[in-house]
Amino acid sequence: MTLTSTGTRQQINVRVANVTKKFDDVVAVDNLTLEITGGEFLSLLGPSGCGKTTTLRMLGGFEEPSAGSIYFGDRDVTNLPPHQRDVNTVFQSYALFPHLSVTDNIAFGLRRKGVSKSEAKLRVDEMLTLVDLEGRGERKPHQLSGGQQQRVALARALVNKPQLLLLDEPMSALDAKLRKTMQLELKRIQSQVGITFLYVTHDQEEAMTMSDRIVVMNRGRIEGLGSPRDVYEQPSTEFVATFLGASNLVAATLERGTGDVALAHHAHGTFRSPAHRLPPGLTGAVKCGVRPEKIQIRALGDRVAADENSLTGRVLISTFMGVGNQYVVAAPQGEEFVVYAQNSGQTHAPRSGEEVLLTWPVEHSFVVQPSGDQSPEGESS
Amino acid sequence: MRSTRGRWLGLYSWLLLAYLLVPIIGMVFFSFNDVLAGRPQVSFQWNGGTLRWYRELTQIVGLPESFWLSIRLAVASTIVATIVGTLLALALVRYEGKKFRGRRIVDQTLFMNIAAPEIVMGASLLGMFASYHIARGFTTLLISHAVFSLAYVTVTVRARLQGFDRHLEEAAGDLGSTPLTTFRLVTLPMIMPGVLAGAMMAFALSLDDFVVSNFVAGTTLPFPVWVYGATRMGVPPQVFVFGTLIFLLGAAAAIGSLVMSRRGMKRT
Lengths: 381, 268
Ligand SMILES: Nc1ncnc2c1ncn2[C@@H]1O[C@H](COP(=O)(O)OP(=O)(O)OP(=O)(O)O)[C@@H](O)[C@H]1O
Ligand SMILES: [Mg+2]
Hints:
Chain A is an alpha+beta fold and about 375 residues long. Chain A has two domains: about 1-235, Rossmann fold; about 240-370, CATH 2.40.50.140.
C-alpha cells in the first residue's frame, strides 16, 4: 500500500485575491480572499449553494473569475486553462469516462504526461489497492456502485500527485467504515507526498478531524477561518456559531470595560466573556453564546463559582440519547437553551418541568456579531 | 392477462414486419424472373426462375456506371455531411449568446432544410448553379447531397450531445489533455453512436435521392435518375438485381453493427 515516493517537492502557496464570480445577476462568490499554505489540508464548509464548488472550479480553471486574481506561488494563473495547471479535481459528480475501463480512467492523467504504459499500469495498480478496488480495473464505471465510482474518481486525481488537489465532497457516497479508512489514507498521502488539499465537505466531523484549517463560507463570503478548534470554540460570527455545531445565543449589549472580561448585558442579567477573544471592532448590539456541551445543569440554589456565568430556567424537554442527555431549558424571558450532558452516570438527571440552574465557565462564553437574516440553511449535520 | 397481451404484441410485430418487407421481397423475387420473348424488360408475371440477370448484370449500357456513381456519390457526400454536421452540432450545443451570434438563425435554417419540399430545394440549387455558371455533374451532385444530408446528421448528433455530461471534458482537461486531445479521446468516442447513425442516414438519403439529383445531375446520372429515365423505354430486370444488391449491402451493414455492439457489450 505504499506509493512510489517522488520525494518532497517545492510546495507553493495558492492565493485567491479579491475574487468575485457572477452568473448573470447571481453572485456565487463575493470578493473572496484566501491564502492556502503549501502542503496544508484546508476544508471548505458551508450550506448548499454558498459557492464552494464555484470556488473550486475557479481554482481548477473551469470558470473565469468575474473579478480578482488567482496565484500559484508568484504565478498569476487566473486565465490559465485547466490542462496547464498542476491541479487535479475530484468532481462532485465523479465525471468518470464511461467508455473507458477503470484502469484507463485512472491512467488518463499519467498517459497525458507521457508516462509509459507499463509504468502507468504499476501506479494504477497501487492506487486500486489504495482505494480497495483490486481486480476491478477491467470494469467500466457503470458496472461499479456509487461508492466504488467515487473511489475511482479519487484514485484518478490522486495518482497524478498534483501540487493542489481539489476535492468536492469526495466521500459523500461512502459508508462510515470505508470513509474512516479513506480519511486516514488521504491524510497519509497528503503528508507523505506533500499535496495541498482543498476539501469540500458537508460532514463537519470529517472537516474537524482532517483539516489543518477550516473555512466556513456563506453566500459567497468567508465567515470564519482558522484551525478547527479556534473556529469551533471562538466563532467569529453568528452564522459560524450556528452552522458549525450548535450554539445557544442571546441578544445582548456589549460593554467592553477595561479588564480582561467583557460584559454582555441581556434582558435578565449579564454574561461575562473573555475580552481578548472578542472579534475586533465589535460594539453595541451583539449576541452572546455558549455551546450546549459547555453548560452544566444543576440543582436550583447550588453555589455558582466566581468564574462562571449562570442562569435559571425550567426544563421543557429532556431527551435520553444513550451517550448523553439533551435538555431544552426555558429561560425566564422564554429563550430556549439547549444543554447537552454526558451520561457519566453520576449526576442526577432533571425531569421536564423542574426548575434548574445552568452554569458555564466564563472562558467558554463567546460574543459574536448578529448575522441579521443570514441564518444557515440546508445541510448541517 | 400477460400472455394475451404478449400474443397481440407478437401478432402486431409480425404484421408490421410483413408490411415493411413485402415490397423488398417482391423486388428480390422478381430479380430472378425470366423474360420469355422480346426485349428484356421487367414484367410482373412469373415466367420461371433464372440467374440470367445476375450473369448479365453489366450488359445494360449506362446502368452499372450510374450504380457506381451513386455509390461514390453517397460515400463522398456522407463524409462531407458527417464532418460538417457533427461540427455544426457541437457549435449549436456548446456556444450561445456572445460566442455564437446567429445561432438561432442557423438553427431555424436547419429546420427549414429538413422541412422544405425537396422539389423546392432542387429547383433553387439548380438556379444557383446556373447563375454561378457551375457545370452540372459530380460536383454539383456532391454539393447538393451534402447539403440535404447535413441537417439530418446535425440533428442526430445534437440529440446525442444534449445528454452529454460537460464535466467529462472538464475532467479530461483537468487531467492534462489539450482541447484537441479531449475531443479525440473523450468527446468523439462518446458521441460516436450519434455520428454513425447520422452517417448512415446521410448515406441512405443520398443513395435513393431522386428529386434533387434530377435537377442538378446534368448528364451524370445517378442510379435513381437513370432508372426513372429507363421507365420510358422499359425497365431492364437488372434494375431489380442492383436493388437487391443495395438491400443486401444495407442488411449486412445493419447486422454487422448489431454484432459489433453485442461483442462490445460482452467484452466489458
Ligand atoms: N453555471 C452556473 N450558472 C448559474 N448559476 C450558477 C452556476 N453555477 C453555480 N451557480 C449558482 O452559484 C451559487 C453557488 O453554487 P455552488 O455550486 O458553488 O454551490 P455549493 O456551495 O457548491 O453548493 P452544494 O453544497 O450544494 O454543492 C448557487 O446559487 C448556484 O445556483
Ligand atoms: Mg457543490
